[in-house]
Each structure stands twice: as structure tokens, then as C-alpha cells.
TrEMBL record, chain A:
Family label: Belongs to the VPS26 family.
Principal place of residence: other
Zinc-finger keyword on record: no
Top-level taxon of origin: Eukaryota
Keywords noted in UniProt: Endosome
Organism whose genome encodes this protein: Tursiops truncatus (Atlantic bottle-nosed dolphin)
Protein name per its UniProtKB record: Vacuolar protein sorting-associated protein 26C
GO cellular component terms attached to this protein's record: endosome
Gene Ontology biological process terms, A to Z: intracellular protein transport
Length: 277, 924
């Protein structure tokens, strides 16, 4: 249920042919140039999916008195068919947006008046209790993949854990990390929050990862054997609960990035599952 | 108790308990016995300085490059958002190199100002950017000697920021709370939507509820309000700040900025601060550089103490975390950095002190003994713990340290030579012992142990800094013997290569401490090395300062006059030093001060009944202090006093010997007075000394004084300088002359000179003196002369000097004398009438009237009105006074009434007749 007031104000009285409200909700998908090529990306944007589109008549044709008139309204949000009311989400390749439009039709001589505003949909918290899923990790030169010359790597041992990879979106991601030993001096340790958007359709799918946020948790050569906290607040507007539908997916991952002197970059990846409780 | 509580619920519960407890005993606000940060600030800025060039790098935009490499495909939106955060002037990158320390300080001050400006002009984003950029500077440890000062400067900015944010959110609460009713659900929803919409575009804090400036003095209210009655707008704004800060990429700025607005957690939830502090404490662990990290902890403790002093656990945790990272100081990373910057370990380690002192101070504030003991034990366990030891000594209660002095000395001795400088450790210990007393039995041993080390210090600066502190302890608990030893040792160390030249402030402070404890100057000067110690002050200005201090203490504490030769010799020497510093450029104030001190000394010298000794002391003093006029004046007074004392002892009958002595005193004055400059000083002293001479039956000497005074009168200038302003001198002259006349009454005439020789002489001088035009002073003086002459013509004078025959007994009312007297009177009166005539002009009529009346009164009081001439004169004067309607009727009426009343007395019948001849003018 969407509720509010429409405010009409004018110096003189206003003649009109009726006022109506329209709620519209769409999912816009776009294929990234990287995964399908420039032209296809340009032409082949996937058709937007409409989630909701309904209109109600608020005021019959007539006249508003001069000054300020407030018209309260309540608008039920009924989805089309068997579609789901997704949370508002603004990504790069996936956009879920809801708008409320107010139209005032007027006589032939005057232009119709339109006002649009976006409103935010947060899905109702899920009832089920979140089961924590802690993950422990150990990083040494031996555990790394993608290494050309393992022998050249300085020796190190980094241990740690994430308290849970199932995260409540309003709660921070927490954990601990200990540099047990490292031959090379540490430059920085960072948490990189990455969003993975997948647009899929019959022809195949495109998967794109974008960094949302990068948080440094250690700066300089940290003390060995002393745990450094892992702590990251999920940015409000760039995250949403993990979303998986037939046509598209929005998922999140966190990378723990360790930079060693000189020029060594070690990354450890953890997929996350975000939800709203 | 000190283990980090991993379970937030448990933590919340404990803090909840402590909160309740605190509500009861209300110890949540730090008391005045907690030394505030503000008092440390200046000291740190003054101590940690550098001559090397500094640079400020406000990293704008360089962030983009870094981000670009690490990120595969960053959305445009994200990128712009990051850029906005990092730049505060679009796309600008400022790197200011080669700044001197002063430039640097100025730049930081400018940033502080631009922060305030940005805030005032509602550019909140820019304000945040400035703060972020500034706190980034704290991760830069180049020119490491300056780091503590940099910390001070930058945290000032952070404090400003924290205050601004808090006040704004607070004002939103107050305003909406009092003005608006509780918003409806719909309204709230709308406000929220609005906010989200805003947030989509960029970070704009909601429109300000008030243009700030709401008075926030009401701390009491701020303290008592609970998060439940904070309105949604305020909460939302507050959350917005925290989200914004949580997304700052770099650790150090994120830490500092979040810590700076720690207090704002109050708006969100009751347990906000108590959850946030431990988290921030843990966050510091991520800072690799131990120096940067310890300062971050210091800042956290500082904010914590301010906002929630009851949350001791975080303070303790900071301390123990620090101990865990302590070993890093000796790690390779730090060592390499030191080599690179060319900084030695003994000068690197003291850089930690301000931060550690602060942390320790926060923890030890009102802390139980057990905690302090535990902290000490933990410090002991670490290798090379001198640094910790020093902070323990600087921060813990002095009593705590003092009772364990021997332990501390033991620990200090065990410390590694190459690390933290030992003299600093002993200095810290000494500071504690100056404040609190160690156990009686340990006292001597402490001194011996400490001094054994101190005396071995090679660098005179290190030595004197240490010795200065320990002198206090020595003076407090020991006798002059030990003090003497200490002073001797200081002399021994400071004399080679004239090392004392660089340490005057410390040496001065040693002297001050010694004289503060030895009020008995005979004991003080019997400390053999005291005077040799003074000889080290070879720069004149310092020397004089020290002398002044000593004299001040002497004047303050010396109760009894003294003749102790040791004191006299020493103090004469000291006073001579002060006196000899006077030159043409010395300021008046300075001279006055010195004279005051020397006079204080002179007044305290007494040889009892040995008057001759006393006089010879004055003679000596005169030769020593001839440049300070007030001292000479004091000496003359003292000698006069001595003469009068002699007279008192002899009960007025001088023997031959005492008469000679008294004459010597008189002679002293007579030859001293001419060397003075102040003309009235001289006049008054002549008069005064003449009176003393007269009282001691030295008639010719008295005559000489009076003659000298008379011959000085023509020299009186018209204007004299009083307290820096030029004033006419006539009123002073009048005052002096009146005084003089009263003395002249009793001065007997000299047998070889004519009758009333002195009076005539003085009249001549007055006649010749160039008086101010339009002034009646001369006439007033003549009127006074008339009084004198009238008094002289009486058979017996009103007063006498014991054992001196005045003119009344010399002439015994001789008619020739009276005739002389009358002649003089007539001359004077003629002068007066002459003057009255000249006042017949329009503008002078008023003066004529009042002078006439005053002359009339004089005649009435002193004249014999049975004489017809005088009677007629008075009637004329009466008319004159009234002639032009200038007279005050009421005065005239009163005068007439008085005459009528007098006429009732026996022998005054003639006044009745006079009264009839004095008409009162009616008003027309």
C-alpha cells in the first residue's frame, strides 16, 4: 500500500478534466559491451520487464479552489500476473525502478500537468531466521592459484575467518584476520565488495562484476600474530538482497586483498548471500 | 576484566550495568582533577619541532588512478561518487612542498578555517572532504620528529568537525522537538523518501532545520536526552554521516573521522558509544606503523574520555593492545625508516611519550591501585621498557610512584643504554618526588641512587634538565649539607666550556627552588656553594633577575631586622649587582622595582644599639647605591631616624659624644641631599632634616638646611613631571611653603644676622619668583606669611621644640622686635592690596571678590581689630568682596553671624561695632 497526498496549489482556481495516479515498476536489463560486443550491447538490450502498471482516478473533472489543496491517497500495489515485487535496485546492467506519476488532464487550451517521483520498495523482511555460516581461511603461497613462479613469492601465512557469509544487509560484515608471518612487509589489506550482475535470456547470458566499495582494514606493516578486525558496512544504495530470477541475477562477493612489498597482490574471494531480516 | 569481550550482547549488558551505576554516583563527567588535553597541547607543539622542510599532500584525484587499476569495471556512478569524496575542489590536486614548520602550521590553520567556512555556507560535503584529507596527513610519517605536533594540529581540526556535526544534529532535535508535533506516519514516510532520493544523486545532508547557531550551552539537556525522543530527521542525518564515513576507503581517515563524531552515537542508541569504542579500538590494530597507531589510540582515548569516561574497558584495551604491538618498535620496518630519515633511536622513542602519557593518564584517572600495579607488572615484563616506564611515571599519581621510588630506580637502572634516554626517566621520577613524599626511610637512599646516575650524565643539557628537577626533592627533604653538595655538583658540571650559558632558565629555576625552601637567610648563605652558584649567571639580565628573586623572597620572609655579617655581605653584593645594572636605558618601572627591593633590604638592617656601626653601614650603602634616587631618599630618612633614636635614648640631653654623632648624622644628610634630582624631594628633605637638626639642638646646622631650602626655591620649575604627566608646580610649592612657615615660627634668629632673617630671605625669594600670570598663589602665600607674622608677635608661641629657645623667649616681647614685625606685616599687606587693585578688571572680578574675602577672614582671625586702620581696612575689604555681586551670599551671611557670635565673648566687644558697619548686600 502506497499512501500520501497530492498537493495542488495555484493562485486562482484551477479548471481540470480529472486527476489520476499511475504506478509503474520495471526491470531494465542491459548487456555490457564487454561480454557481448559493442553493437550487440547497443541493439540487443533486453526488453524491459514490467512488474506493475496500474492507474487510478483520483479526482473527477471539476475545479480546484484557489490556494492549496491536499488530496490524500492510498494506492494498493498489485503486481502483474505472477510477477514478484522486487526491491528497488540501481545497478549498472540491472535496474529495478518504481515510479509514481500524477497526471492532471486539462482542457484543450492548457497543457496537461504531470509530476513523477520515484519511490523505493523494500521487500518485507523474510520471516526465516538467518543461519550463520562462518568461513575460515588460510592463505599461504601454496594455496594461491594463478601464480607464475611460485618460488619467487615471499613466504607468508595469513589466517582468518568471516563470521558469516550469509549476511543481513543492515548489519556489517564481520570477521578477523591474523598475519601470522610474512617475509615481505605488508603494504595494505583491503576488503573489496563486488557485485555480480547476470542478465540471462534464451540466447545465453552475460555476467559482469563491478566493485562497489573498497575498504582498507590494515595500513602498513601490521603487527604479526595480532588479529585485525574485518568490518564492512554494506552501502545502502548499492546493495540489495541477493536476487535470483529466471531472467537476471544480482549477487555479491567480497575479496580480501593483501598487498605486499613490492608489488604482490593476493586476493581471496568469498561469495556472499545478502538478505533482509 | 581486560579480555576483549567478543560477545556484543554481554558487552552491552555490562555497559548497561555500568551505566546504571553511573547514574547513581554520577561520575560520568570528568572532574577538574583530570588534566585536560588543552594543557598538553602547547607543550607538545613547543617540544616537537623541526627545521626540516615539510609537505602537505592533499591527495586529490590520485585516488582515481589507484582505483582504476584494481577495479575491473567500475560503474560511472560509483566512480563519480568516489571522486566527489576525494576531491574537494573539482579535480584539484594540491601538493605543497618545502614548507617550513611555521608555513605548515599556517596552512593547517587555513584548512581549519575553510572547514568552518564550508560548514557555515552549508557545504557539508566539502567539509567532510577537508576533514578526510587532513586526517590522511596523519598516515604520513616523513619528518618524523614533527609527528606529535602534526597530530596536535590535525586533531584540532577533527575536534572542530566533531563539534560541528554534533551541534547540528543536536539543534535538529531541539528545534523539531519543541516546535513540531510528532509527525504522522505518512509524513515520516515522505521525509524518508525524500532523503533516499537525495542520497541517490549525491550525498547531501538534509536541509538544515535551523541555520545553526542554536545555543548548545545546555549540555545538561544534551546529556539527559535519550535516543527515543530524537526525531527521525535527526536520526537519519546522523545515520547518513555514519554511512558516509563507513565508506571512506583508507583506514586512517576512516578511523579518525569516525572517532571525531563518536559522540553522535548518542542520537542513535543508548549503547551506541559503548559498542563503537571497542570496535574502533580493534580497528587501530590495522595500523601498521607503531607511532601512527599509538597516536590513533591517544586520540581515541581523548574522545572517549570526553564522551564516555565511564567506559574504562576500552581505555584498558587500548593500553594492552599497545603492549602487544610494542615489539614492533624494534622491528625491521621501523628501523629501516629511521635509517632512511637519519633519526637515532634515543630521539625516536621520546616521540611516543605525549601519546603514551595521555593514554596512561586516562587509564590511571581515578583508577584503583590494583590496576596500576597490574599495569606496572605488565610493563616490567616487556623488554626494553624504558619508554613505558617513563609514561607510567608521567601519568600515574605522584603518590603511587613516590611510594615505589626504590623499585623504579631499580628498573631504570636495568634499562638498556641505547634506547630511551635515561635522563628523561630520572627527570620523570624527580617530578613525582617533587609532588609526593617517598617513605621516610628511603629518602636518602633515593637521592644517593639517583644522583649517582645524574652526575654521570655527560651532556650538560641532559644533566641540567635532570638536576633542576631533583633540586626540589633535595631541598624539600634534606639539610643545607646535601643541598650544598648538589649545588657544588651542578657548578662542576656546568662550568666547563661555559655550559651554563645555554641553561640559564634551568639554573634560575634551581635558585628559585632553593630559596623557596630556605627562608632563613643565615642558613641559606651559609650554604657554601650558593654564592659561587650565583656567579654562574654571567649574563647581566639573567643575573639581575635572579637577584631580584632572592631579594623578593628576603623581603617576604625576613621578619626580624638583622646584623648578621654573612647576610649583610651577601645581600649587599646582590643589591650592588642589581644597582649596577641600572644605566641610561633602564626603564622607570625597572628602577622603581630595584629601588623597592634595595630599600626593603636597607630597612631590615639593624645593629641594635650600635648606632655608629649603623651610620657607617648607611655611609657604605650610599656609596654603593648612588644611582637610585629612592634608595638615597630612604638612606636620608634612615639617618634622620637614627638621629632621633639617639635623642630618644639620651632623653634629649646629648652628651658630647652623642652630640658629635648627631652632628655627623646631620652632616650626612646635608651632603647627600644635593645629589638628588627631584626638586620637591630635595626641598622636603631639607625641611625635614632641618627639623631633625633643630630637635637635636644643632641650631647652625638647622639654619644651614633652611637657607639651602630657601635658596632652592627659585629653582622650582613651573611645570613638573608627575607620573609621566606635566603638571603645574605651584600647588606643590604652596604646600611646601606653608609647611616651611610653621617650622620657621620656632626657629630662633641667628645672633649675627638681623631680626627674622630667614623670613625676610624667604620673602625676597617669593617676591622674585616668577609666578604664573593670572595666578593668586603669591597672594595666598603672603596671607600665610601674615599668619606666621601674627603668630610670631605673640608673647608665647603655640609650640616649641624641647630644649630650643625660640624667638619668644629670645626677645621676650621686645618692642623693637614687634616693630620690625609690624613693618614686615605692612609691607606684605601693601603687596596684597596692590594685587587686589590689579584684579579690578571684568574677567578677574570674581577672583578679586574671593581673595578679598579670604584676606578679610585672615584679618578677622589674626588681626587686632581694635586698631582703627585695620578696622577700616576690613570694612573696605568687605565692601570689595560684595561690590560686583560676585560674593556668595550664604558665605557672607555666615561670616557675619560668626562675627556677631564672637562679639559676645569677653574682650571682643569691639566686634559688635564692626558688625554694624558690615552691611549685607541684598539681591537685586
Amino acid at each position: 500500500m502506497l499512501s500520501g497526498v497530492v498537493v495542488v496549489s495555484g493562485k486562482d482556481s484551477v479548471q481540470h478534466q480529472g486527476v489520476s495516479l499511475t504506478v509503474e515498476g520495471t526491470v531494465n536489463l542491459q548487456l555490457s559491451a564487454k561480454s557481448v560486443g559493442v553493437f550487440e550491447a547497443f541493439y540487443n538490450s533486453v526488453k524491459p520487464i514490467q512488474i506493475i502498471n496500474s492507474t487510478i482516478e483520483m479526482v473527477k473533472p471539476g475545479k480546484f479552489p484557489s490556494g492549496r489543496t491536499e488530496i490524500p491517497f492510498e494506492f494498493p500495489l498489485h503486481v502483474k500476473g505472477n510477477r514478484v515485487l522486487y526491491e528497488t535496485y540501481h545497478g549498472v546492467f540491472v535496474n529495478i525502478q518504481y515510479t509514481l506519476r500524477c497526471d492532471m488532464r486539462r482542457s484543450l487550451l492548457a497543457k496537461d500537468l504531470t509530476k513523477t517521483c520515484e519511490f523505493i520498495v523494500h521487500s518485507a523482511p523474510q520471516k526465516r531466521k538467518l543461519t550463520p555460516s562462518p568461513v575460515a581461511f588460510t592463505v599461504t603461497p601454496e594455496t594461491l592459484q594463478n601464480v607464475k613462479e611460485r618460488a619467487l613469492l615471499p613466504k607468508f601465512l595469513i589466517r582468518g575467518h568471516l563470521n558469516s557469509t550469509n549476511c543481513v544487509i543492515t548489519q556489517p560484515l564481520t570477521g578477523e584476520l591474523v598475519v601470522e608471518s610474512s617475509e615481505a612487509a605488508i603494504k595494505s589489506i583491503e576488503l573489496q565488495l563486488v557485485r555480480v550482475e547476470t542478465c540471462g535470456c534464451a540466447e545465453g547470458y552475460a555476467r559482469d562484476a563491478t566493485e562497489i566499495q573498497n575498504i582498507q582494514i590494515a595500513d602498513g606493516d601490521v603487527c604479526r600474530g595480532l588479529s585485525v578486525p574485518i568490518y564492512m558496512v554494506f552501502p545502502r544504495l548499492f546493495t540489495c538482497p541477493t536476487l535470483e530470477t529466471t531472467n537476471f541475477k544480482v549477487e555479491f562477493e567480497v575479496n580480501i586483498v593483501v598487498l605486499l612489498h613490492p608489488e604482490h597482490l593476493i586476493t581471496e574471494n568469498f561469495p556472499l548471500k545478502l538478505c533482509r531480516v | 576484566m581486560f579480555a576483549a569481550s567478543a560477545d556484543p550482547a554481554a558487552l552491552a549488558a555490562t555497559t548497561e550495568n555500568s551505566r546504571k551505576k553511573r547514574d547513581r554516583d554520577d561520575n560520568s563527567i570528568v572532574g577538574s582533577d583530570f588534566e585536560p588535553w588543552a594543557s598538553k597541547r602547547g607543550e607538545i607543539l613547543a617540544r616537537y619541532t623541526t627545521t626540516e622542510k615539510l609537505s602537505i599532500n592533499l591527495f586529490m584525484g590520485s585516488e582515481k588512478g589507484k582505483a582504476g587499476t584494481a577495479i575491473s569495471a567500475m560503474s560511472e556512478k560509483v566512480r563519480t561518487r568516489l571522486e566527489e569524496l576525494d576531491d574537494f575542489e573539482e579535480g584539484s590536486q594540491k601538493e605543497l612542498l618545502n614548507l617550513t614548520q611555521q608555513d605548515y602550521v599556517n596552512r593547517i590553520e587555513e584548512l581549519n578555517q575553510s572547514l568552518k567556512d564550508a560548514w557555515a555556507s552549508d557545504q557539508k560535503v566539502k567539509a567532510l572532504k577537508i576533514v578526510i584529507q587532513c586526517s590522511k596527513l596523519l598516515s604520513d610519517t616523513s619528518v618524523i620528529q614533527f609527528y606529535p605536533s602534526k597530530f596536535v594540529l590535525i586533531t584540532d581540526i577533527l575536534d572542530t568537525f566533531g563539534k560541528l556535526v554534533y551541534e547540528r544534529i543536536f539543534s535538529m532535535c531541539v528545534d523539531n522537538h519543541s516546535i513540531l508535533p510528532v509527525p504522522s506516519a505518512a509524513e515520516r514516510k515522505r521525509a524518508y523518501l525524500y532523503k533516499l532520493e537525495q542520497a541517490h544523486s549525491t550525498f547531501i545532508p538534509p536541509p538544515s532545520a535551523s541555520s545553526s547557531g542554536t545555543s548548545l550551552e545546555d549540555e545538561e539537556m544534551a546529556y539527559h536526552f535519550s535516543p527515543e525522543n530524537v526525531n527521525d530527521t535527526a536520526k537519519e542525518t546522523c545515520l547518513n554521516w555514519f554511512f558516509k564515513i563507513a565508506s571512506i576507503r583508507e583506514l586512517i581517515p576512516r578511523f579518525y573521522v569516525e572517532a571525531s563524531i563518536l559522540k553522535c552515537n548518542k542520537f542513535l542508541s543508548k549503547t551506541g558509544i559503548s559498542e563503537c569504542l571497542p570496535r574502533l579500538t580493534c580497528m587501530v590494530r590495522g595500523i601498521g606503523d607503531p607511532l601512527v597507531s599509538v597516536y590513533a589510540r591517544a586520540y581515541l582515548c581523548r574522545v572517549g574520555m570526553e564522551v564516555a569516561p565511564h567506559l574504562k574497558e576500552s581505555l584498558d584495551k587500548n593500553f594492552f593492545d599497545f603492549l602487544l604491538t610494542f615489539k614492533q618498535i624494534h622491528g625491521d620496518t621501523v628501523q629501516n625508516q629511521l635509517v632512511l630519515q637519519g633519526v637515532e633511536l634515543p630521539s625516536y622513542l621520546p616521540l611516543y611519550s605525549p601519546a603514551m602519557d595521555w593514554i596512561f593518564q586516562c587509564i590511571s584517572y581515578h583508577a584503583p591501585e590494583a590496576l596500576l600495579t597490574e599495569m606496572m607488572e605488565r610493563c616490567k615484563k616487556l623488554a626494553n621498557n624504558a619508554l613505558l616506564l617513563n609514561s607510567v611515571m608521567s601519568a600515574f599519581r605522584a603518590e603511587f610512584i613516590a611510594t615505589r621510588s626504590m623499585d623504579f630506580i631499580g628498573m631504570i637502572k636495568e634499562c638498556d643504554e641505547s634506547g630511551f634516554p635515561k635522563h628523561l626517566l630520572f627527570r620523570s621520577l624527580g617530578l613525582n618526588l617533587a609532588l609526593a613524599n617517598p617513605p621516610e626511610s628511603d629518602r636518602l637512599q633515593i637521592l644517593n641512587e639517583a644522583w649517582k646516575v645524574i652526575t654521570k650524565l655527560k651532556n650538560p643539557q641532559d644533566y641540567i634538565n635532570c638536576a633542576e628537577v631533583w633540586v626540589e626533592y633535595t631541598c624539600k627533604h634534606f639539610t643545607k649539607r646535601e643541598v650544598n653538595t648538589v649545588l657544588a655538583d651542578v657548578i662542576k658540571h656546568m662550568t666547563p666550556d661555559r655550559a651554563f650559558e645555554d641553561s640559564y632558565p634551568q639554573l634560575q629555576s634551581i635558585i628559585k627552588k632553593v630559596i623557596a625552601h630556605f627562608h632563613d637567610f643565615s642558613v641559606l648563605f651559609s650554604v657554601e656553594k650558593f654564592l659561587p652558584f650565583l656567579d654562574m649567571f654571567q649574563k647581566e639580565s639573567v643575573r639581575v633577575e635572579v637577584c631580584k628573586c632572592i631579594m623578593e623572597v628576603f623581603i617576604k620572609h625576613q621578619q626580624e631586622p638583622t646584623k648578621d655579617p654573612v647576610i649583610l655581605n651577601a645581600l649587599l653584593h646582590i643589591c650592588k649587582t642589581m644597582h649596577d645594572s641600572v644605566n641610561a636605558l633602564t626603564l622607570e618601572d625597572e628602577k622603581r622595582m630595584l629601588a623597592y627591593l634595595i630599600n626593603g633590604f636597607i630597612k631590615m638592617v639593624s645593629f641594635g644599639r650600635d648606632f655608629e656601626q649603623q651610620l657607617s653601614f648607611y655611609v657604605e650603602a650610599r656609596s654603593m647605591f648612588c644611582n637610585l634616587e629612592p634608595v638615597l631618599v630612604q638612606l636620608i630618612h634612615s639617618v634622620n631616624r637614627l638621629a632621633m633614636e639617639t635623642r630618644k635614648v639620651m632623653k634629649g640631653n646629648h652628651s658630647r659624644k652623642t652630640a658629635a654623632f648627631v652632628r655627623a648624622c646631620v652632616a650626612y644628610c646635608f651632603i647627600t641631599i644635593p645629589s638628588l634630582v627631584g626638586i620637591f624631594t630635595r626641598l622636603n628633605l631639607y625641611l625635614h632634616s632641618g627639623q631633625v637638626a633643630l630637635a637635636n639642638q644643632c641650631l647652625s646646622q638647622a639654619d644651614a638646611f633652611f637657607k639651602a631650602a630657601i635658596s632652592l626655591v627659585p629653582e622650582v620649575p613651573k611645570m613638573i613631571n608627575i607620573d609621566g604627566k606635566m603638571r603645574p608646580s605651584e600647588s606643590f610649592l604652596l604646600e611646601f611653603l606653608c609647611n616651611f612657615f610653621s617650622t620657621l615660627l620656632i626657629v630662633p634668629d641667628h645672633p649675627e644676622h638681623g631680626v627674622l632673617f630667614l623670613v625676610r630671605e624667604l620673602l625676597n625669594v617669593i617676591q622674585d619668583y616668577t609666578w604664573e600670570d593670572n595666578s593668586d598663589e603669591k597672594i595666598r602665600i603672603y596671607t600665610c606669611v601674615l599668619h606666621l607674622l601674627s603668630a610670631m608677635s605673640q608673647e608665647t608661641y603655640l609650640y616649641h621644640v624641647d630644649k630650643v629657645d625660640s624667638n619668644d623667649s629670645l626677645y621676650g616681647g621686645d618692642s623693637k622686635f614687634l616693630a620690625e614685625n609690624n613693618k614686615l606685616c605692612e609691607t606684605v599687606m601693601a603687596q596684597i592690596l596692590e594685587h587686589l587693585k590689579t584684579l579690578a578688571k571684568d574677567e578677574a572680578l570674581k577672583r578679586q571678590s574671593s581673595l578679598g574675602l579670604s584676606f578679610f577672614n585672615s584679618i578677622l582671625a589674626h588681626g587686632d581689630l581694635r586698631s582703627n586702620r585695620l578696622n577700616q581696612l576690613s570694612v573696605n575689604l568687605w565692601h570689595l568682596a560684595q561690590r560686583h555681586g560676585c560674593a556668595d551670599t550664604r558665605t557672607m551671611v555666615k561670616t557675619l553671624e560668626y562675627i556677631k557670635k564672637r562679639s559676645k565673648h569677653p574682650d571682643m566687644g569691639h566686634l559688635t561695632e564692626l558688625a554694624l558697619r558690615l552691611p549685607l548686600q541684598t539681591r537685586t
